[in-house]
Amino acid sequence: MSDLNAVSTAYQTLLSAIEQVEPRIAAATRQELTDQRASLKLIASENYASLPVLATMGTWMSDKYAEGTVGRRFYAGCQNVDTVEAVAAEHARELFGAEYAYVQPHSGIDANLTAYWAVLAHEIETPALAEHGVRSVNDLSESDWEVLRKKFGDQRLMGMSLDAGGHLTHGFRPNVSGKMFHQRAYGTDPETQLLDYDAIAEQARDFKPLILVAGYSAYPRRINFAKMREIADEIGAVFMVDMAHFAGLVAGKVFTGDEDPIPHADVIMTTTHKSLRGPRGGMILATEKYAADIDRGCPLVLGGPLGHVMAAKAVALAEARTQEFRDYAHAVVDNARALAEGLKSRGVRLVTDGTDNHIVLMDVRDFNVTGRQAEAALLDAGIVTNRNSVPNDPNGAWYTTGVRLGTPALTSRGFSTSDMDAVADMIAGVLKATKPTTTSKGEPSKAKYELTDDARQHSLNEAERLLDLHPLYPGFEI
Ligand code: PLP
């Protein structure tokens, strides 16, 4: 936005209007900006959308119901939502080089569920309807419908295990995907902690899933999608990639060739708000083969499309098509490497011994603390992270042994590789100065800890220095 003074004045006016209706909401909104500006955000799944993206979400595009999809709506008067959805999809197709894009999903989980149901429709429902000579499930007899319903629930999915960095939506029981599918998880090599494609192929041959999923929330390495495609082809599986975390690195042409999922996968799901730096939301890309089934996502799985968010997706995708964004995406990875090297040189153990994406996963066992204690001590010291399991985690999924770090947000603020080295110094200093307290049974606590005042204060001062060097939305005042 060129005239930041005008933008600031516009937001001030809007916030005053909100204040008159519900002052607590205006205050929380103002405070959130203050807090975001003052925190050293290393949460790998978060970012800062641009002011144009944020502004696009605050409009009357939100007021229109538009169930269905472009040109096939269940409501009248959807011409402007049609424009918004078509423009966003066009940007998505051209940015990623995909045959088809669906920009309606409200979040990553919604995108995954929508995509799974589209694949089930294509692979299970359509052949069943053809077999019975009918066009719709409504035309099936009660007994044929019962058979089909059971068949939906009898399909197999194979995805990455949670403690190796996979996501709940890849067939795990706490998520509906784990209740829909029989699931088997592939992990990583116990020595290298890297994906072992031969082992995955062997498991796939044995399990024969309908769907093979690749993608992660906490794996600090790239995936060879060409190899995963070969595995899927060998067993006749549909190959799906969840690029929620690394979509920005695909958009920014960091992941190319075998590391680019688009030419290799049948269906690709993503969020739009992590490394892609758009509004909170989801998206599905696919080959033409699945287009008609995914287009039925609303109302099959999704509620009415959010016109204002699809509009913001279009703006963010337009931004992601610039050289500036490509430079940003490369800087995200350079910064992650600098952070990893900085931590290793200060004695911090890393899962897979490093990174080649935007994630660094620390294994904090050598400091005799749990992931939970490390996360809390780092927060006391001005560094926002989240605890995470490591492969074969001895502390389980609640206390954990890992802390996940990510560089998309700080890179958006303009942090450089030398700044990341300073951040590594702060993190290592806090870990060294944190000790578990002793429980009444004389054992080390898994939750309580002590962090020395000196280390905490030093880190807080450093955080302030770095944040002042790289202000968030500089010149924007509310
Ligand atoms: N898929 C992956 C790989 C993720 O990491 C996440 C979120 O962390 C999701 C899906 C879910 O995204 P959302 O929170 O937008 O539903």
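^ pyridoxal-5'-phosphate complex. The mean pLDDT is 97. The radius of gyration is 24 Å.
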